[in-house]
Design goal:
Blueprint (H helix, E strand, L loop, with lengths): L6 H38 L19 H18 L14 H45 L19
Length: 159
């Protein structure tokens, strides 16, 4: 059984497949650029994960895992300084409250970079999937081919 696709549908399918591939490539490039930008900005801060961190101690903060490790140890240090109390639990006049506020800001900044890495990775992944779907569309949609003319029929005479 042979299925034929009209030239308009075939062209539309191929154009949409190519558009999908282009959009996927844009996603991959945008994700890679975002990852690189966040990583570069973190590295430019010259932050090193504290030696008493649970993991990645002594490593420069330039990626999602090191940023998370540093945010975690900042929280431990701040809670140690406040006797286990959070910023909201401290008295307004307690001088440690400023330390807790700074720790909170630092942690929020580091967690924002962790989320940024996740979004960048998601963009790359979505781009790769979009490229694969567009490629599948191109492979499954036959290219336009020349229509062969049927041989001329001989005139039938009766008689």
């Amino acid at each position: 059984m042979t299925t034929t696709i009209s030239p308009v549908r075939r062209t539309t399918a191929r154009v949409l497949s190519i558009i999908s591939i282009v959009i996927g490539a844009v996603f991959v490039v945008a994700g890679a650029v975002a990852w690189t930008a966040v990583s570069t900005q973190l590295a430019d801060e010259h932050i090193t994960v504290a030696e008493d961190a649970a993991f990645l101690a002594g490593e420069p903060v330039a990626g999602p895992l090191t940023a998370y490790a540093q945010a975690d140890i900042i929280n431990h240090h701040a809670l140690d300084a406040s006797g286990g109390l959070t910023y909201a639990e401290l008295d307004r006049e307690d001088p440690v409250r400023a330390t807790m506020m700074n720790a909170s800001f630092l942690r929020a900044s580091l967690f924002t970079s962790v989320v940024s890495f996740g979004v960048a990775l998601f963009a790359v992944g979505a781009g790769v999937v979009t490229i694969m779907l567009g490629s599948a569309g191109l492979l499954l949609t036959p290219a336009a081919s020349k229509v062969e003319e049927a041989p001329a029929r001989e005139a039938v005479t009766t008689g």
